[in-house]
């Protein structure tokens, strides 16, 4: 039971990262590798802010702002320097590794004897998981409602149009370069905030904690989309959270059944994504009903 509760909590907390990745991967149709640099950046900023006496909530805000800057760098490389999105993300991720080291002043930093956002709900170690659950539910609720509201605004619709059809959006007078930059900034802001949240939950930040982050985020998105189709935008966002929880529950199954070792989790994540993305092709080849959407469908 404790493993199940832990899986649900981690799924909800990690869903903040997946929601950020949803903006670049699904709305903008960009494979943004900045994720693996902005995630530990948010963790590093949040941990350092708490160590220097700032409120854990302010630490999350600072983590979000740091992610905006990381996204602005990638957006600048894509929109202004005309560097392909994949390469731009790799360049930003590489640069952020050094920046994260400078922020932490060491490879890792812990939060021993410092209060986190979890402690604001409950100081009792016996109730840490439940406190983390309530924090995760509240934060994801704010993010989902905020994203649903934002993408219904004129600016949000312009970002969606840019991802749907860049050329047509320009013909309607949309500044697609600006929209791309804003979208990438918002995505990495959420990813960094997720990194700050995970760091407070784990009690430490590490410069290498971003490795495989994009795979974990994509797993949640793909699983949610496979299980729930033809739904409204806000339900799609909710499905990302459900996908993150299911992904963590699958890891619990793997742990308890001794199918894989803990070091094989990233391999397991990659296999999940590969299988889910292949399902539409398999159903088409076998002439099965179109139960699964193709990966590029919105």
Key features of this structure:
two-stranded antiparallel ribbon; 298 residues; disordered C terminus; single chain; mainly alpha; 2 strands
Short overview:
The chain is 74% helix and 2% strand. The chain is mainly alpha-helical and 298 residues long.
Structure description:
It is a single chain. This protein has helices spanning 2-27, 35-51, 56-79, 85-104, 117-121, 128-150, 154-164, 166-171, 176-202, 213-227, 233-257, 265-285; strands at residues 108-110, 204-206. The protein has a two-stranded antiparallel sheet. The chain has 12 helices and 2 strands. The protein is mainly α and 298 residues long. Helix 2 (35-51) runs parallel beside helix 4 (85-104) and helix 3 (56-79) packs antiparallel against helix 9.
């Amino acid at each position: 039971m404790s493993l199940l509760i832990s899986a649900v909590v981690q799924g909800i907390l990690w869903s903040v990262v997946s929601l950020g990745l949803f903006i670049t991967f699904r709305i903008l149709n960009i494979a943004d590798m900045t994720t693996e640099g902005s995630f530990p950046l948010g963790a590093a900023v949040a941990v350092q802010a708490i160590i220097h006496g700032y409120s854990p909530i302010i630490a999350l805000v600072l983590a979000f702002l740091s992610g905006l800057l990381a996204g602005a760098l990638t957006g600048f490389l894509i929109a202004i320097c005309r560097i392909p999105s994949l390469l731009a993300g790799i360049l930003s991720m590489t640069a952020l590794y050094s920046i994260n080291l400078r922020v932490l002043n060491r490879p890792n930093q812990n939060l021993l004897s410092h209060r986190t956002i979890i402690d604001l709900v409950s100081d009792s170690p016996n109730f840490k998981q439940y406190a983390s659950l309530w924090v995760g539910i509240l934060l994801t609720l704010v993010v989902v409602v905020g994203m649903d509201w934002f993408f219904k605004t004129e600016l949000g619709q312009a970002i969606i149009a840019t991802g749907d059809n860049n050329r047509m959006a320009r013909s309607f007078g949309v500044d697609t370069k600006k929209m791309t930059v804003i979208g990438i900034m918002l995505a990495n802001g959420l990813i960094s905030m997720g990194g700050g949240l995970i760091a407070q939950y784990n009690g430490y930040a590490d410069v290498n904690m971003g490795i495989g982050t994009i795979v974990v985020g994509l797993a949640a998105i793909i699983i949610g989309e496979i299980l729930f189709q033809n739904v409204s935008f806000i339900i799609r966002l909710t499905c990302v959270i459900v996908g993150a929880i299911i992904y963590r529950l699958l890891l619990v199954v793997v742990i308890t059944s001794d199918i894989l070792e803990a070091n094989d989790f990233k391999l397991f994540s990659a296999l999940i994504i590969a299988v889910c993305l292949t399902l539409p092709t398999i159903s088409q080849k076998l002439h099965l009903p179109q139960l699964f959407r193709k990966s590029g469908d919105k």
